[in-house]
Hints:
Layout: H1 3-10, E1 16-21, H2 27-34, E2 38-45, H3 48-60, E3 67-71, E4 85-91, H4 93-102, E5 112-117, H5 121-130, E6 134-143, E7 146-154
Amino acid sequence: MANRIKAIASLVPPNSVVADIGTDHAYLILELFKNQQIKYAYAIDNKDGPIANAKNNIEKHHLTDCCKVIKANGLDFPLDPKVNTLVLAGLGGMNIISILKHDEKKLKNIKTIITDAHRDNDKVTAYLLALGYQVKEEKSIIDKKKKYQLIAYHR
């Protein structure tokens, strides 16, 4: 598993119910279940290819009872109130803000938001601070010669 995925997983609080927005292959979810960190997960993506990849990986690892794969744009689906952790990794900062702004009332039960913005981290941080989140932990890592800034926000 890529160092970046492991680093993101290390920021997820134990026993979380996670929605991974932009899940792609669901590698983060696989890592979280492998480490027995989470209770349930939602793998969300807005493209057919990543949805097929996520479903295949979830089925291959026998996680269909504890993970639901959903095709949706960001949070544009009925978010289970048990979801307490959002992961938005591998997206642009303005895209992350747009996803969260689209339906802010869905954030009421979200205690932790983990981001890995490709740019505009300062804008993401300002937006989340304005919503009442605080920076809990930051990690800068290099994976495959690329630098990533991972931030966990909590309220």
